[in-house]
Design goal:
single chain; alpha+beta; Aminopeptidase; about 30% strand
């Protein structure tokens, strides 16, 4: 069996991706309050009181072999977000990086770029994935721009793909990076991370 479901810790200079557990609940309840993230209508992020339920949901999907969830830790070791390998196709060795959110104070910082790079590097170099997908709401423009900055290409739009919690219908933009594209994307992201490392630290 493809080992994409094996728990793993991925470490960088700005942060770390570790297997998600209930031990991260307190930090994540604080993180989700930073920016009132649950108020974003175009994505699904839990309210503080629902964080434990969301952790349990992701761990249950892991036990069903369809998801590998991570907590995103900053340089101090505090959990500031969540992400996953999801929609794991064990037969064709494809997966999606998704169900990602970050506390507002770390959004658009180097930690997001580094975490995506760590996940992509592990998927392509260790797991030998043939492709990695990213999916997001058509109207989630910040997410779409972030995905495009990684070097992912738009495969298409799944119209009326899902029904949101408010009953509205979601059009889903589907992006991907393929195995032959990884070398160029890796060079691009490595350059971006080098630039972040050279930025002055705020006082």
């Amino acid at each position: 069996m493809w080992n994409a479901l094996a728990p793993v810790t991925l470490s960088g200079q700005l942060g770390q991706l570790v297997p998600l557990s209930m031990n991260h609940r307190g930090d994540l309840e604080v993180a989700v309050r930073d920016g009132n993230l649950w108020e974003l209508w175009y994505t699904q992020i839990p309210r503080p009181e629902a964080v434990s339920q969301e952790i349990e949901r992701r761990l249950n999907l892991q036990s069903e072999q369809s998801m590998l969830p991570f907590a995103v830790l900053d340089a101090s070791g505090r959990a500031v977000g969540m992400t996953t390998y999801m929609n794991i196709d064990l037969t064709h060795q494809r997966l999606e990086i998704g169900s990602t959110w970050y506390a507002k104070h770390v959004q658009r910082t180097g930690i997001n770029t580094e975490c995506k790079w760590l996940l992509l590097r592990h998927a392509f170099e260790e797991l030998q994935a043939i492709a990695v997908e990213f999916r997001t709401h058509w109207f989630n423009h910040p997410s779409r721009r972030a995905i495009e900055r990684l070097g992912a290409k738009l495969d298409g739009v799944l119209r009326h793909h899902q029904r949101a919690s408010d009953g509205s219908l979601r059009d889903t933009a589907v992006y991907s990076i393929t195995q032959p594209e990884w070398a160029a994307v890796n060079t691009h992201l490595s350059h971006q991370l080098k630039r972040h490392s050279q930025e002055p630290t705020p006082c």
